[in-house]
């Protein structure tokens, strides 16, 4: 699919994001540059990285090698937990831009709230300041629950543009999706295919793949889109990159969306990472 035909989501700050991103977790080094460059040539323009992924350098290099204007891209990175204090966060944002060799980020997220440490409100004030300085266009969060969202909104008067959360058929997060929507926040999904093991083999997914002449991954990604979610799948191979952009020429029925959602599990998280207790540090 040509990038110009990928639909966009409108953010609450007036900016836009394409409806699918390239995830770069475990995509790094020169091989990573080649993989990201191939994705760019396939049509991706929203690229998701993080300081914790060690892929920021590869993302920046691939963008430069592409020959495509910087203004055509939407680059996301994320703040590590060890830099939640205001001045540390501001310096880390500058460091991220140095690693990417870019003048600004299109989207920057607090990676985890880490409520036990309770510095995420301070981190949010740093993102607001960096946005005012022109270092970031849109600011958001990742792995925030509704209570975390309300706390930063009430403390600063600034609502995140995006909340990136773990969402996949085994962990559908209905209440959090509604909480984000109620606050005018676009939801992104990390690990949108789960870990690519169980969900891709579920009978309902395989049945729909056969019906629509798609693969199982495409069915799940389409399910995300029809729930208003922006999926961030990692795709290293060219074939997977192409498949993940071929999502807008078919549509699931409402009953099929519900059937996929019924796969959700009480313990469906891929690594049991509860944002209320998870500690990002090793």
TrEMBL record:
Q: What class of enzyme is it?
A: oxidoreductase
Domain NADP-dependent oxidoreductase, which positions? 31-263
Q: Where is this site: Lowers pKa of active site Tyr?
A: 78
**Protein keywords:** NADP, Oxidoreductase
Q: Which Pfam families match?
A: Aldo_ket_red
Organism from which the protein derives: Leuconostoc inhae
Record: active site: 53 (proton donor)
User: Would you identify the family this protein belongs to, as annotated?
Assistant: Belongs to the aldo/keto reductase family.
State any single GO MF term: 2,5-didehydrogluconate reductase activity
The residues listed in the UniProt record as binding substrate, with positions renumbered to this chain, are 111
Does this UniProt record's set of keywords contain NADP?
A: yes
Q: What is its EC number?
A: 1.1.1.-, 1.1.1.274
InterPro entries linked to this entry: AKR (IPR020471), Aldo/ket_reductase_CS (IPR018170), NAD(P)_OxRdtase_dom_sf (IPR036812), NADP_OxRdtase_dom (IPR023210)
What's the protein name? Methylglyoxal reductase, acetol producing / 2,5-diketo-D-gluconate reductase A
């Amino acid at each position: 699919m040509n990038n110009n035909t990928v639909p966009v989501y409108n953010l609450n700050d007036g900016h836009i994001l394409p409806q699918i991103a390239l995830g770069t977790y475990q995509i790094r080094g020169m091989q990573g540059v080649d993989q990201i460059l191939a994705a760019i040539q396939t049509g991706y323009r929203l690229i998701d990285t993080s300081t914790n992924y060690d892929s920021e350098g590869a993302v920046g290099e691939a963008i430069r090698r592409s020959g495509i204007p910087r203004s055509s891209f939407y680059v996301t990175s994320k703040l590590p937990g060890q830099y939640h204090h205001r001045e540390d966060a501001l310096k880390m944002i500058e460091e991220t831009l140095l690693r990417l060799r870019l003048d600004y980020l299109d989207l920057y997220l607090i990676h985890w709230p880490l409520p036990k440490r309770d510095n995420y409100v301070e981190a949010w004030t740093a993102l607001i300041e960096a946005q005012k300085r022109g270092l970031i266009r849109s600011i958001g969060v990742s792995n925030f629950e509704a209570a975390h969202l309300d706390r930063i909104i009430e403390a600063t008067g600034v609502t995140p543009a995006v909340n990136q959360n773990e969402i996949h058929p085994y962990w559908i997060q209905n209440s959090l999706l509604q909480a984000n929507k109620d606050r005018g926040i676009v939801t992104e999904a990390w690990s949108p295919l789960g870990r690519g093991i169980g969900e891709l083999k579920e009978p309902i997914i395989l049945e729909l793949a056969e019906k629509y002449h798609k693969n199982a991954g495409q069915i799940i990604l389409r399910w995300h889109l029809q729930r208003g979610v922006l999926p961030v799948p990692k795709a290293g191979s060219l074939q997977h990159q192409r498949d993940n952009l071929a999502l807008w020429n078919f549509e699931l029925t409402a009953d099929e969306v519900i059937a996929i959602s019924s796969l959700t599990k009480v313990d469906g998280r891929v690594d049991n990472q509860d944002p209320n207790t998870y500690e990002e540090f090793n």
